Amino acid sequence: MRLPARLLPVAALAAASALLTGCFTGADPSSAEGDGKRVRLAMMLPPRSGLSPLSDDAFKLSRWSTAETLVKLDAEGDARPALATKWQQNGRTWTFEIRDGVTFHDGTELTAEAVVDSLTKAATASPKPRILDGVELTVRAEGDKVTVTTGTEDPLVPQRLSSPQLSILAAKAYDGKTVNPVGAGTGPFELTKVNGTSSATLDRYDDYWGGKAKSPGIDVKFVPDGTARAAALRSGEADIVEAVPVSQAAVLDQDLITEVPMPRTNTLYLNTGKGVFKDAGLRAAAREAIDAKSIVEGVYEGRADVAEGLLGPALPWAAELRSPVKRARAGDPSGESITIGTFTDRAELPEVAAALQQQLQKAGFKVKLDIREYANIESDALAGEFDAFILSRATVLDSGDPAAYLYSDFGSDGSFNLSQLADKTVDAALGKASEAKAGETRRKAVIEAEAAVLATDAAVPMLHERVIQGDAAGVTGAAHDPRERELVTVDTYVK
Length: 495
What we know:
- The structure is a single chain.
- The chain has 495 residues and is of the alpha+beta class.
- The chain has helices at residues 10-20, 58-63, 112-123, 157-160, 226-235, 246-249, 280-289, 292-298, 316-321, 348-363, 374-382, 403-410, 424-435, 440-456, and strands at residues 39-43, 71-73, 79-81, 84-90, 93-98, 137-142, 145-150, 189-195, 199-204, 217-222, 240-241, 257-270, 304-306, 337-343, 366-372, 388-394, 459-471, 475-476, 493-494.
- A hairpin with a 3-residue loop joins strand 8 and strand 9 (199-204).
- It has 3 domains: 7-43 and 187-239 and 472-494, Periplasmic binding protein-like II (D-Maltodextrin-Binding Protein, domain 2, 3-Layer(aba) Sandwich), CATH 3.40.190.10; 71-174, Dipeptide-binding Protein, domain 1 (Alpha-Beta Complex), CATH 3.90.76.10; 261-466, Roll (Dipeptide-binding Protein, domain 3), CATH 3.10.105.10.
């Protein structure tokens, strides 16, 4: 059981602080020129693939504002210009106009050919970047324009091209066996040095097309230990700290932390294919038995949002478009035995499982828990071996669009259908959402698909998670991005 943050031993906090001593002893931040000091950044996860943009490391390059994409997303998830200034669709082909006056950090010019080179490397990589799974994509240059053609008509091509995994890098990045982003981006900060999995250094790129950055540079340290990251903020050794653990948030100055709603929902998936929850009335009984508010307050110490649907406050349009859902009447669960599975990799989930066990037993169910490491339980969950499964699930994948998540998790042929759901009404709604044009039309179709899923009680959304970011008192302009694509931007500096 987690100790309240205020009861953590002083010795543990001192030890964590010691882990950070000397971590940011590079350039003297007070000697830097410009509007502010260098930004000292403590990040949670070290690079896993040498900062290759074709991996999840791409999100680090994006958060440091060193690598950029043709398109970026606004708060609504709509595509906006970045390295491309405009685009248009003609069936399976999209044409993008490339921004003039952009140079890579090695001084070479951004051209249509350079864009084609980067995107072709991604499209032909093995394995492909996740955003291109199942997507057939070819790219060619036509003067100062780039055409992107897909195997089937795809309304989300601009959103796909916003993924950090499709960052545009200089030709030199592709000279070796792996993609090397050092000195090869187009952003306001140039990646100049990477020290394995311990640190990275970025300096301001004064020829940035979008204007001079306010900070002279970024000094990154990778600090996997959450207590150590919190200690770095408390001691003043870091200016911006990623992912402060819930257990540490209470012992920090509350003015220094920001809780950012994440597009991640903690959901109880109910097996509709066999067992107790094949009965819609018993699924309804389980839904009515769950007190999500007490889980938010008890397990997450109030630092999460009670779910009203599958899509949470990180997608602000969802609540605006959502209407009440008509559901089945609850049956009598007395004496019904169920097994709930979850995993240990996310620290809160076993605690959530214990709370659910008590709530469902109070309603009349007999509840057994099966808790393992994720690698050892995923195959059983996908095979429908549990009556119910607790999962913390990202609801917006790389394109910034929730339709893919809904289809994967609730389509009758979805690849991650833990509920074993096969419902014609749901499939029709998911199909409509998948084919809808981007923008308001697609958002409305997505909410209709969400409603169709919720009406089945195949999934009971409980809460939406938040990530806690620490910004020191002198930090100005740090991004608080639910999609975790931005952190230090051209406008970020330390006074």
